[in-house]
Write a structure and sequence with these properties.
This protein is 20% helix and 27% strand. It has helices at residues 5-15, 82-92; strands at 21-26, 29-34, 37-43, 46-50, 64-65, 74-76.
Length: 108
């Protein structure tokens, strides 16, 4: 089951204090970007963040899961509590890469 537009809008609203937030539909689900870095995967009405040492202490009690078949295990982000979700995203953000730029094809 793909995420509803309402759920994606809710995640974006909850994370708004962490930076500039946008969502992009990918493979039937969504990737949520904060300040142009992909931070949250939203799949089947669940928000996931990468398991990373920088947030391990903050996520000790968090559930874990796999956002899609073949994915590595991720933490499940509780987006109901905006302040905590924003703190987690702000802590994780510096440790994540910007997406790679696609090379433009030369049509000559």
């Amino acid at each position: 089951m793909a995420c509803s537009n309402e759920y994606i809008d809710f995640i974006c609203l909850q994370l708004a204090g962490a930076g500039v937030v946008r969502a992009r539909k990918m493979f039937g689900d969504y990737c949520i970007y904060v300040d142009e870095k992909p931070v949250v995967l939203a799949c089947d009405e669940i928000a996931y963040v990468k398991k990373h040492a920088a947030i391990a202490g903050m996520m000790e009690d968090a559930e874990v899961g796999f956002p899609y078949d073949g994915a590595k295990e991720h933490y499940i982000l509780d987006v109901e509590h905006a302040d905590r979700a924003q703190a987690i995203v702000k802590t994780l953000w510096p440790h994540l890469p910007f997406p790679k730029q696609k090379k433009k094809k030369n049509n000559e």
